[in-house]
Design goal:
The protein is an alpha/beta fold. It is about 25% helix and about 25% strand. The protein contains ten helices and 15 strands. GO terms for molecular function: ATP binding; ATP hydrolysis activity.
Amino acid sequence: MLREIHLSSFKCFDTLNLRLGPLTLLTGVNGGGKSSVMQALVLLSQTFRQQEWGRSLLLEGPELALGNAADVLNQDSARRDLALGVTTDEQKVKWSFRAEDRRALSIELEHVELDGIPVPLGVSTRWLMPPACAETSQAVTALRNLSWITAERTGPRELLPLRVADGHARVGHHGEMAAGLLYWRGEDEVNPALCLPDTPPTLFHQVRGYMQRFFPGCDLRVSPIEGVSAISLRLRSDSRSDFQRPQNVGFGLTQLFPIIVSLLAARVGDVLLIENPEVHLHPRAQQNIGILLAETAATGIQVVLETHSDHVLNGVRLAVKQKKLPASDALIHFFAHRPGQAAVPESPTMDDDGRLNSWPEGFFDQLDFALAELM
């Protein structure tokens, strides 16, 4: 499990050391740095997958494209180097990179530290570390097992990609591979702790059951298209109606579908990054996805969540109060613009009843301001 992320001279952060838990909720104002935290983890994960034996941080990749070195270096510091690091239960790893050319689309690895001690890189590097260290590194394993679902999820589509089974290890950063994953792995058994009662424990039936819980009457069907490397997802919002093209069913169904698949298909030790799960969902459904994310985190699957929804937050708080997740396992970080101050988040803590010890200015308080004006 990732216990902390370390950033230096990366985007809006001069320096950041941020704790991560089984469930970490990132919230705050637009442009406050939430996405930058997620992107730092995705950059490392993407680099490991695309350049296993490379020696540079890939800034322009198939999952995340951030531009050139000038786009990711902290502009206030005017430095040409940056560092990304993580701490796990067993080790702390810090990768330092230097951009000799600010126009470059990747940044060269300069050195690596393990538990604060520089490690000689040698002739070859694997996953940005000496091969012998990389193969046993808990940090590398966690980052390689990372999945990211962006806020820009694939909307209703006639056809979705169908690849070989190994190509559907994850739902894809836009959720576009979720239907194919369900097709190939539909018979896999889901973690018993997440299984709905009176529903077969296989992935397909559990996804179907959860979708019905969020959208009563909902049903789904995945079918490969003969002669084409594609699959169709058909949905219905009422058990009395026929299966329809996703375009003719509520938009929220297609937005939630890849999140449900990702949560139920994940295995213990996986790391899931999910942006704005509340998109196109009714407030009650937003609260319920917060509860499900907390329940997932309680099974040994790490969840890092970015949200602007107080309903999602309240779902997490309810899950803690209902003893579905220990309060100590739910971390909250609020990112705000403080003129003249460094970009450092505030971190309210939660007690066993789901109550927060502080409520920073700007932290889900807009309803209070509106009511004050209306009353």
